[in-house]
Write a structure and sequence with these properties.
The complex is a heterodimer.
Chain A: H1 16-21, E1 35-39, E2 48-49, E3 53-59, E4 65-71, H2 79-84, E5 95-98, H3 103-117, H4 123-139, H5 148-159, H6 167-181, H7 183-201
Antiparallel strand pairs in A: 1-2, 1-5, 3-4
Helix pairs in contact in A: 3-4, 3-6, 4-5, 4-6, 5-6, 6-7
Chain B: E1 18-23, E2 26-31, E3 33-35, E4 41-43, H1 46-52, E5 76-82, E6 100-102, E7 104-105, E8 108-112, E9 115-116, E10 127-129, H2 133-148, H3 164-172, E11 190-191, E12 196-198, H4 208-217, E13 222-225, E14 232-235, H5 247-252, E15 258-260, E16 273-278, E17 287-293, E18 296-302, H6 315-319, H7 322-325, E19 334-339, E20 348-353, H8 356-369, E21 375-380, H9 385-395, E22 412-417, E23 428-432
Parallel strand pairs in B: 1-10
Antiparallel strand pairs in B: 1-2, 3-4, 5-6, 5-9, 5-10, 7-8, 11-12, 12-15, 13-14, 16-17, 17-18, 19-20, 19-23, 21-22, 22-23
Helix pairs in contact in B: 2-3
The chains are: A alpha+beta, B alpha+beta.
The complex binds iron/sulfur cluster (SF4) (2 copies) and FE2/S2 (inorganic) cluster.
One iron/sulfur cluster binds next to helix 4 of chain B.
Chain lengths: ~220, ~450
């Protein structure tokens, strides 16, 4: 972004695109960059992928509900529209990622934060948040596997809705949305690591060795 | 601990209000209120309702005699509620039955939203699905989470054989682990206090032990430090976990995290024979199960009796089993007599062999010959001193009539007092079958 900062807007009066590109707000992406993803409401909100289209329900003038299709950048920034688009306005902290962002690094960073923040009271969040963070640490440090995308999705799926507080969703949603929407990137990274490690160790590494203690988030 | 029930006549209890629910497809009527951990009537929980239907909901943190924590999530069950129309009236199926809305995640209506059975009250028309695939999947996932950082050292773990992790793994465990990361490491063999050793890596952070010592004993001695997966059970620095009830935490710990210094590494639990009994160490008479193998006792465990000891017992009584196996116990009937050379002074004890018949005859003889108004006490020589002392005061028996330091001897003590008739002398102490070894052992 050219102009990151704090802005006060009236709910529903501006779209995500305006917030990103309007000179009164973000002022557009840095020169030569393309939009890759937007997290609309704090890091726990589900990510939007550039180019996504959403079906929103709108009450017409005749009082009837109609479905309209809107582009990511035309999405009005209000509670209901964001919820209908599958995410949330959450804390209102909009994180914009351009094509220079490594989406796996970004998710790894978020997951590490949530593993650190988990209070540890209930099982799914306590164990799952660190598990995901460790798997992502692996993926960003050359020890990924092709199956890690599904591995991560499954762990996150086992956390959401099963915890005492909403932190379970908070740590599961970024993983669920990032991996679902950028699955090709996660799988490609895992496959590349596998191929690379296969050459290096000149043997099958289908069975992932536990990563060395120094490299892990122990 | 609950007081013993009285025999006073009470007004007949009001009729129990019942709720109709379905558990696993079967309709049952369950009381609207059921006793909580303190015995107070509270809205019946799903877990209690399932138990009434004969279905056990797996659980770790829930314990019927402890406040509910709801942190392990093992008891998650799929459930449904009567569907309500906009007019707040139940929506009906075509056949006239109430339509049930299975509960789903509000943001993902294709995914089941479970409720923790240990803390969720039932409501009329509720349907609980304790055996459904979704319920099973939730249990599998919670168990997997509990096991990823677990050391899985069952072969050297004292809990093996009575471990809830092992038991539920049989039912809901995955045969192979898919966890390829490095495990979290935590303190091992932590000395929590004089009787307890903790293995923090085995702890599943259910907080049963924390709640027990805080809410039952009233000694807020244990707690968790650190956060997330690194959460660690510990005691306060410089304050050992040493109240007289610590060993109960070993019983209620669902895994092998808390172990008894006395019992650990002594015997595999599956070799132990359980015999129901009573603890003989004091007048409370806690109900116990004796664990023995080949005529040797290895441990006492409390046995639930809500009128006496609930689910607990004290450490002193629990460790007193060692008495039974001691080599210096009496094997024959002996009579101990105090032979005083000078009137009014205690003399040495001398022992003579006798028989049960002779001893009992002698006691009954003395009792029947006792002058009116005198008092006598027949007591276990292993009695606690305090209740004995109170009785002494009531009966006005002289202090000199007692030997206070024998509370760990075997046998029976018979004490008479002839004070009334010869106030200053002739106090007569007879001890029958006293242990020869007079070693004092303060508890
Ligand atoms: S606590 Fe249970 S599962 Fe863990 S090592 Fe001991 S017996 Fe095995
Ligand atoms: S030590 Fe045992 S009882 Fe205490 S929190 Fe850990 S698993 Fe639960
Ligand atoms: S038994 Fe632990 S959450 Fe219900």
């Amino acid at each position: 972004m050219k102009k990151p900062g704090y802005y006060e807007v009236e709910v529903g009066k501006v779209t995500l695109g305006e917030l990103i590109n309007d000179p009164a707000f973000g002022g557009g992406l840095r020169d030569g960059r393309k939009l890759k993803a937007v997290i609309p409401g704090g890091s726990s909100a589900k990510v939007f992928k550039a180019g996504e289209k959403f079906k929103l329900k709108r009450k017409g003038a005749d009082g009837q509900m109609t479905a309209i299709e809107v582009d990511l950048l035309d999405l009005p920034y209000d509670f209901d529209s964001l919820a209908q688009a599958g995410s949330m306005s959450g804390s209102g902290a909009i994180i914009v990622m351009d094509d220079s962002t490594d989406i796996i690094e970004a998710l790894s960073n978020i997951a590490e934060f949530y593993a650190h923040e988990s209070c540890g009271q209930c099982t799914p969040c306590r164990e799952g948040s660190l598990w995901m963070a460790k798997a992502l640490h692996r993926l960003t440090h050359g020890h990924g596997r092709k199956q890690d995308a599904d591995y991560l999705l499954n762990i996150a799926q086992n956390i959401q809705g099963r915890t005492i507080c909403a932190f379970g969703e908070a740590c599961a949603w970024p993983v669920l949305s990032f991996v679902k929407k950028f699955k090709d990137e996660f799988e490609a990274r895992g496959a590349a690591d596998e191929a690379h490690n296969a050459v290096r160790s000149a043997g099958p590494t289908q069975e992932m060795r536990p990563i060395a203690k120094s490299a892990a988030l122990t | 601990m609950p007081a013993a029930t009285t025999t006073e006549t009470k007004p007949s209890p009001p009729p129990v209000e019942k709720i109709r629910i379905r558990v696993g497809g079967r309709e049952i009527k369950v009381p609207k209120l059921m006793p909580d951990w303190q015995g107070k009537p509270q809205p019946t929980t799903m877990l209690q309702a399932c138990a009434l239907a004969g279905i056990e909901v797996p659980h770790y943190c829930y314990h019927p005699k402890l406040p509910v924590a709801g942190n392990c999530r093992m008891c998650l069950v799929e459930f449904g509620l009567p569907m309500m129309g906009p007019d707040r009236k139940p929506v009906l199926n075509e056949d006239g039955t109430t339509k049930i809305a299975k509960q789903v995640l509000p943001y993902e209506p294709t995914t089941v939203r479970g409720a923790i059975a240990c803390a969720t009250p039932i409501s009329p028309g509720m349907e609980i699905y304790p055996g459904s695939p979704a319920t099973k999947q939730m249990r599998e996932s919670v168990l997997e989470f509990l096991l990823i950082n677990h050391p899985l050292d069952c072969p050297i773990c004292d809990q093996a054989g009575e471990c809830k992790l092992q038991e539920y793994s049989v039912d809901y465990g995955l045969s192979a682990s898919r966890f390829v990361e490095a495990k979290v490491h935590k303190p091992k063999a932590v000395d929590l206090g004089p009787r307890i050793v903790l293995d923090d890596e085995r702890c599943i952070l259910c907080s049963r032990c924390v709640r027990f010592t805080k809410d039952i004993v009233g000694d807020d001695a244990l707690g968790f430090v650190n956060r997330g997966s690194y959460s660690t059970l510990t005691h306060f620095p410089g304050k050992p976990f040493n109240n007289n009830y610590t060993l109960n935490t070993v019983d209620i710990c669902p895994v092998g995290a808390l172990t008894s210094k006395d019992f650990r590494f002594q015997m595999r639990v599956w070799f132990l024979k359980g015999t129901k009994s009573l603890c003989t160490s004091c007048g409370t008479g806690c109900n116990i199960v004796i664990g023995s193998r080949e005529e040797k006792i290895y441990r006492y465990e409390p046995r639930q009796n809500d009128a006496v000891n609930s689910c607990w017992m004290c450490d002193a009584g629990r460790l007193n089993y060692k008495w039974v196996n001691r080599g210096d116990r009496l094997t024959e009937v002996l009579k101990a007599e105090q032979k005083s050379c000078l009137p009014g002074q205690a003399g040495r004890l001398s022992y003579s062999k006798t028989t049960w018949t002779a001893a009992l005859n002698e006691i009954s003889d003395k009792l029947s010959k006792a002058p009116a108004g005198s008092a006598a006490i027949v007591a276990s020589a292993r009695r606690r001193r305090q209740p004995f002392g109170e009785r002494r005061q009531k009966s006005e028996l002289g202090r000199g009539a007692f030997d206070w330091h024998r509370s760990e001897s075997d046998g029976l003590e018979f004490v008479e007092d002839h004070r009334r008739h010869s106030p200053r002398q002739h106090q007569d102490v007879d001890c029958l079958w006293r242990r020869r070894d007079e070693a004092r052992h303060r508890r």
